[in-house]
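User: Hi! Is it possible to get a structure for several chains at once, not just one? Here's what I have:
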Amino acid sequence: MSVRLRADAGPLRDSVLAAARRARREQRLWRWTWAAAAVIVAVAIPVNLSLDHVAVRASRSSVDWPLELQRLVRLPFRGSAAPHPIPRSVEELR
Amino acid sequence: MDLGALYDAWASRLLAYMMTITRDRSKAEDALHNLFVKLATGRPDLRDSAVYLFRAARNEALRVARRRAERPLADLEIVAAPTGAADAGAIADALDRLPAEQFDVVVLHVFEDLSFRETAEVLGIPQDTAASRYRYALDKLRGVLEP
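Assistant: Yes, the chains can be modeled jointly so their relative placement is included. Here is the combined structure:
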């Protein structure tokens, strides 16, 4: 037998292992949370935006508004393709 | 990794080793607690488990203690001496007279049965340095312990 160090860690066993397992569970929960957030950022948002674009294009092509009506209401989604308002002279306005 | 089995196999040795650094049982217990939380949440490389665990234990004990305490080792009553040899208190007193770097080598090589390679890896020093510190430490211990 040689000189040894001795200390009994037995009384701490339950509390140390419970804390370690709790920390491991919390870490897993955080990992899943980050994974879900990453999926939302990487997939869900771009897909949603692209679907919105498809819907807007479809609405543009499906509704054939009369030109006069477009001028009157100035439909916002026509963008730069929308016809510019025709400036009227003061005499016309009177 | 089975934490329970790891705890049963190593916790008492690690706690004693940490007490030699913190010189305080409650601080060593805090360090042991932190160490097992890190083992549970990290990816420990346990291929060379003695080296990994003692190095992690040393780092955690130094972090908890912030600096080496000056409390005498004999107060902790963690040195178990064989019958017929010098009593545990005398061995603890002799160890306390060693410089810290020699003390570290003696604790790991003699008390914890680590090889010089393992001791050197735990302490982050070359193997030859560990061996020479051990020789110097033995000379000093002989001078103190032999009548």
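The CA atoms of residues 87 and 93 of chain A lie 10 Å apart. Residues 11-93 of chain A form one domain.

User: Great, thank you!
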